[in-house]
Design goal:
By secondary structure, the protein is of the alpha/beta class. It has helices at 6-15, 31-39, 68-95, 99-121, 153-156, 161-183, 189-211; strands at residues 2-4, 20-23, 27-29, 43-46, 49-54, 57-61. The protein has a four-stranded mixed sheet with strand order 2-4-5-6. The termini are far apart.
Length: 219
């Protein structure tokens, strides 16, 4: 029988931090290893079943908790749903300020909804249409190129400050989705590219709201 020690876990965690740990068949945890996992609130699994850790071994089961893959799927699904709702809320709030802008957000929201089918079923869709912009090219449109400029209280006080802040809030939510995609180790490149395309489109809308047709990207 193999014993997993605290040092074993620390070495693994140092190289690649993890939020769940699968105990291999025939292995047991030492008290130090058990405490290491508890201190970091790391989910522990054995034979695909969620367990709780006690007395240095896997001592029992937590009912109602799925396997690591199931938890990842649910986490990503919940994150996508939250962002979909924010697209609708943003469009609703923009409707009173700028109907055309609200419609553009709804169109991007529909392209965002396709991501759940890309992750679940591996479906492919037409890319988000690229708009000519001095701050990005057709090649960089699919890349994570960051914000065109920082949004501050100055922008809040401009004529279209509310529109800018609503769009920026939506963009920040999509950055959270990006992080979740990385954390659950989604390997579908098309998902990452679709997220980048939508974020870059929102950046263009922010530039348009603030500076008209002029590109304001900070190089």
């Amino acid at each position: 029988m193999k014993f997993i020690t605290e040092d074993d876990l620390r070495d693994i965690y140092r190289k690649d931090p993890f939020t769940s740990y699968e105990i291999q068949p025939g292995a047991r945890l030492t008290p130090g290893a058990r405490q290491f996992l508890q201190d970091r609130q790391i989910n522990v699994f054995a034979d695909g079943t969620a367990m709780h850790v006690g007395d240095g071994v896997v001592a029992g089961r937590e009912p109602g908790v799925g396997t690591p893959d199931l938890l990842k799927d649910r986490r990503l699904g919940a994150c996508l749903k939250s962002a979909e709702a924010l697209f609708l809320l943003t469009a609703s709030e923009l409707m009173e300020l700028d109907v055309v802008l609200a419609q553009e957000v709804l169109q991007l929201g529909r392209k965002f909804e396709e991501i759940k089918y890309m992750t679940k079923e591996g479906k492919t869709f037409e890319p988000v249409p690229f708009r000519t912009c001095g701050g990005m090219t057709a090649e960089t449109f699919c890349c994570d190129i960051g914000d065109c400029f920082d949004i501050t209280e100055f922008h809040m006080q401009t004529e279209k400050g509310r529109q800018i802040l609503l769009l920026h809030r939506l963009r920040c939510e999509l950055y959270e989705v990006q992080v979740t995609v990385m954390e659950v180790r989604c390997t579908n490149k098309a998902v990452t590219e679709r997220l980048n395309q939508i974020i870059n489109c929102i950046s263009q809308l922010i530039c348009k709201a603030f500076g008209g047709g002029e590109c304001l990207r900070n190089e």
